[in-house]
Amino acid sequence: MTEPGVASRAVAVPGLAPPARLGGARLRRALRQTPVAVIGTVTVGLVVLTALLAPVLAPYDPVAQIAKPLLSPGRDFLAGTDEFGRDELSRLIAGARVSLYVGGLAVLIALALGGTSGVLAGFCGGWVDDLTMRAMDILLSLPALVLAIAITSVLGSSLTNVMLAIGIVYAPTFARVARAPTLAVVRVPYIEAARALGASAPRVVLRHVVPNVAAPVLVQTTVSLSTAILTEAALSFLGLGTQPPTASWGLMLSAARQYMLIDPWIALFPGGAIALTVLGFNLLGDGLRDLLDPRLRVE
Fold it and tell me: How many angstroms separate the CA atoms of 39 and 243, rounded?
């Protein structure tokens, strides 16, 4: 006979690892054992701090023409100036805010669309699962950048449309990541017991499914942030993303094409900023996977 408290108790189920819970001491110990996570955290932290403090850190107005065009890096302009005489360092700092803003909101859109769809598909099963995942398969069959270009071309060039396009492009990935653990947890006995005791579907999902989905979705979020920043830079490079005179790393790379042979530094700085940020988020994602994946955790 089923005990009345079974719906609210944590139940150990063979074959299904519990969601990771890292306390303060355990988290510090795990970070020491995972230097990749530390490097990624520090890198991402510096980029985020730069974006948050952009108005304070930027030595000049990023859109103001204050010097001769294409000045080499020097004492007054540490990263030189662009083709309009704007300070490159100030534009790099301002570009960090644009990249993180667009990438972050785009990933939140992808998480909302894809994560919700994946959990519902895995929880409901049947025709809901088939219909949802076939739609996601269609989106996944198209190259991400090509699909983003197509959506942005239809909607128009603006930051809002870029975020929406990137969110739609990466939603199927979140759907697959959320669906797999959902399928695993809905088959365990305590889910059936909770349903038998009259627990509503939203309560079962929030109390039992979401905690098991959270860890892989968190890892995917950090990885998707890197690809979203890359996609935003690519769209801006093609003239479909951030529009002048707003500072954007992709836009700065696009403008630098004409001057790369005579002034290579003008492309080096924004390219390096993109590479460093993408690397930081990828390292952070790998570190989080090592910390949160029950198959990789070492007690």
Answer: 33
Q: What is the 3-state secondary structure (H, E, C) of 40-80?
A: HHHHHHHHHHHHHCHHHHCCCCCCCCCCCCCCCCCCCCCCC
Tokens in use for 72? 């080499």
Q: What is the pLDDT of residues 270-286, one digit of tens each?
A: 999 999 999 999 999 88
What are residue 217's DSSP bridge partners? Answer: none
Angstrom distance (rounded) from CA 258 to CA 20: 50
> How many whole angstroms separate alpha carbon 112 and alpha carbon 130?
19
Cβ 116 vs Cβ 132: under 8 Å: no
- We report the CATH number of the domain holding residue 172 as 1.10.3720.10
pTM of the model: 0.85
Q: Is residue 72 one of the residues assigned to a domain?
A: no
In a domain, 91, yes or no: yes
